[in-house]
Amino acid sequence: MKINIFKKKKVFKKENFKLSPDIYWKIILGLFLSLIVITALFGFYVFSQINQELVFSTESLNSVKEKGKIEKTREALDLFLQREEKSKEILNSPSPVIDPSL
């Protein structure tokens, strides 16, 4: 049995300096997680600001809806009147082509 009291420890060192990819992955992960936290805080802040304020009032919405309905109704009526006039013109005008079967 050998007893090695003064045994040297072998130290394995890299011969050339190489960058470790683990450090870059940790940096990327840290940046990504901090971005998620910042986005969540910003979303909560915007939500709280919107939740406190009255964005739309029903009176202004009703007046806008009524104006829009009236304008759309007038446009539809004008369209139908124009179509009615065109169909009356077509019915009242004699056909320029003579039917040879008669």
What does this structure look like?
The protein is mainly alpha-helical and 102 residues long. The chain folds into 2 domains: 21-55; 56-92. Helix content is 66%, strand content 0%. It is built from 2 helices and no strands. The protein has helices at 21-52, 58-92. It is elongated, with a radius of gyration of 42 Å. The mean pLDDT is 81.
Summarize the structure.
The protein has 102 residues and is mostly helical. It has helices at residues 21-52, 58-92. It is 66% helix and 0% strand.
Topology, element by element:
Layout: H1 21-52, H2 58-92
What are the defining features of this structure?
102 residues; 2 domains; elongated
Low-confidence segments, ≥5 residues, pLDDT <50? none
Please give the radius of gyration in angstroms: 42 Å
The gross shape turns out to be elongated
Q: How many strands appear in the DSSP assignment?
A: 0
Largest sheet entry: none
